[in-house]
């Protein structure tokens, strides 16, 4: 999906293009997207500078990192204090496996604009992926409390995902719950809370939360497998079989479905969390 297809008609700042969004396709991923959420523009920003930043995002999303760097450098030449440009540069260097440069540019973005929500969130994701969950948590919470951030629920959700890698299920539960207070239609927190409750052997609560997920999002192999596991563990074999059937029929080639090919049973086990699995780029973003 091309998140930049309407950019020429939008008056929104590039800052809104940089906000990572959490999704529930093959579980939860944190990606660079075009949210087009806020429309506060910097008085010092020129259309040419913003155009180069948007172009850099387009090139980066297409995997053309060298071209993306050329564009973002042109933006920085026009405005040496552009938090947008430095944030994009940080993301490009992250994608290019140059973590030292990525961190340097994220920090520069925040030095010029400490309340830049996109810089806060993208830098936090970088820190979490690089085994610095406590530093990442602070930045996610700063983004969640940022009045200029139109995706505060996403910041709380990302904070929850990150602390699961510690693991700290108590904090994660708190952050997912806060995300749902802001946006009760966000599927990711419902799924994660169900997974936590399943890991705590609270099967009735886990199934209730999974049903809330099902009200706002389509099933995935992982959510269907969780339905099998919860109901198997709770002694509700008929419901478990229904989830199993849907999983095998709708996602026959998934690794979750293939484990049932030999009619093997899924044994209930506590959920194991590692937030880093959520921070890998998902190539088939919808």
Alpha carbon gyration radius: 20 Å
Query: Which blocks of ≥5 consecutive residues have pLDDT under 50?
Result: 1-12, 21-43, 270-286
Shape: elongated
Number of helices: 13
Mean pLDDT: 81
Number of strands: 2
Strand line-up across the major sheet: 1-2
Please write the string of helix (H) and strand (E) elements.
EEHHHHHHHHHHHHH
Kindly estimate the percentage of residues that lie in beta strands according to DSSP.
Answer: under 5%
Q: Sheet with the most strands?
A: 2 strands, antiparallel
- Work out the helicity level: 55-70%
Query: Termini distance?
Result: 6 Å
Structural class: mainly alpha
What would you say this structure looks like, in words?
The model is unreliable at 1-12, 21-43 and 270-286 (pLDDT under 50). This protein has a two-stranded antiparallel ribbon. It has helices at residues 47-61, 65-78, 83-95, 99-112, 117-129, 133-144, 152-163, 169-182, 187-199, 203-216, 221-233, 237-250, 255-258; strands at 20-24, 28-32. It is mostly helical and 286 residues long. It has a domain at 196-271. α1 (47-61) runs parallel beside α3 (83-95), α2 packs antiparallel against α3 (83-95) and α9 runs parallel beside α11. The protein contains 13 helices and two strands; from the N terminus they run ββααααααααααααα.
Quick recap of the structure?
58% of the residues lie in helices and 3% in strands. The protein has 13 helices and two strands, in the order ββααααααααααααα.
